Amino acid sequence: MQPLLTSTDVRIPVGRYRWRICALLFFATTINYLDRQVLGLLAPQLQEALGWSELDYGRIVTAFQAAYALGFLGMGTLMDRLGTRLGYAVAVGIWSLAAMAHALARNALGFSFARFALGLGEAGNFPAALKTVAEWFPKRERALAVGIFNAGANVGAIVAPLTVPYIALTWGWPWAFLLTGALGLLWLGFWWQSYRPPADHPRLTSPELAYIRQDPPDPAVRVSWRQLAGERRAWAFALAKFLTDPVWWFYLYWLPKFLFETHGLTLDQIGWPLVVIYVVSDLGSIAGGWFSSFLLHRGWSVNAARKLTLLLCALAVLPIGLVARTDDLWTAVALISLATAAHQAWSANLFTLTTDLFPRPAVGSVVGMGGMAGAIGGMGVATAAGWILETTGSYFWLFGAASLAYLIGLALIQLCVPTVPPQPRPLPFNP
User: Fold this and answer.
1) pTM of the full structure
2) SS3 for 361?
3) Which residues contact 60 (CB under 8 A, 6 or more apart)?
4) DSSP 3-state assignment of 369?
5) Domain 17-214+232-416, classified CATH 1.10.10.200, yes or no
6) d(Cα 230, Cα 226) in Å, to the nearest integer?
7) What are the tens digits of pLDDT across the range 131-190?
8) In sequence order, which ranges of 123-231 are alpha helices (DSSP H)?
9) Beta strands of 334-382 (E only): which ranges?
10) Segments making up each domain of the chain, as ranges
């Protein structure tokens, strides 16, 4: 009898409900990045109104990064234990209320407390989203699914400069935090109504469930931090995140200030350059996920497909080192756009690498470990950026370091994981 489907050839309609789940992940990530970018857009106005120094701003950003690191320490494990439905809801609820709480702050200390709470909640987004992708998509579609939901980061960054300046100039800056934070609470209603695990979902057809489960089943494992600390695979992900996540944080929090200080843009002028940058970034996220999936469909090994894509991304970032040397606004925008698109393509494949290297029950914890490493790196960069700009007033060294981070990260991945196996290998023991 002809089987219903195989892992290499599917000829019958299998349904597309999994892409609705992916859409929910996309919108959550959009809101996540919208909420965190409000501060960066309003930073010049808030610095003038509230009297912050560059060091004060660096400390406020560091407060978010510190909480993000602590949040990742627990959020990955929380998602593995509570499951994505409840765990994701808790995370989004925390960060939405924290985003709205910024409206109550009136000094650097108040903003630091609000940013800390925001970081704790937002740390849950990627562990929950990556675990959901691992549950709802076969290996052949995961990079594309990650690329799509990860594109929400750029959509949030696009929506923010188109809406936040208008809200702040029309009703005042507190309303920018209140209205953007409320979107997460709206998303929660859709998530709670729509999401169930695949095996329990009443709207998932049997063919689509079989399609989702086409890969060999993962072994049942319990994951501890002691296990991950001894895993070279986990360190490959964590070290790459430690080097490259801070670059993205730098873009989010300092690009509006860079354009304001270097090219003289004001709050009502800064929107379109940032829109261009993050639209291109969006395309990079989807293209990066598509490209490695395309190579897999063409018969490339998982190792070759992922690492070639990561190498191309690392090379595309190199020209960002020149951006502080150009006086032309749109040349700067072009260089930044290329770098941010390459970062998002890199990020989509780096996240997908966790599902290539680890069984599904461990993905949330591994992503949490990597996110914590990236946030720790971001703390250092936020503090260093504040100090460098306070003492030199130049962005040259910051963009120069950003240009090299990805090649170094890829070298560390290759050192820790010379070959990505065709299927995730189990952890060596269950404590």
Assistant:
1) 0.75
2) helix
3) 39, 52, 108, 111, 112, 115
4) helix
5) no
6) 7
7) 899 889 988 888 789 888 877 877 887 889 889 999 999 999 999 999 999 999 999 999
8) 125-136, 139-171, 173-194, 206-212, 225-229
9) none
10) 17-214+232-416
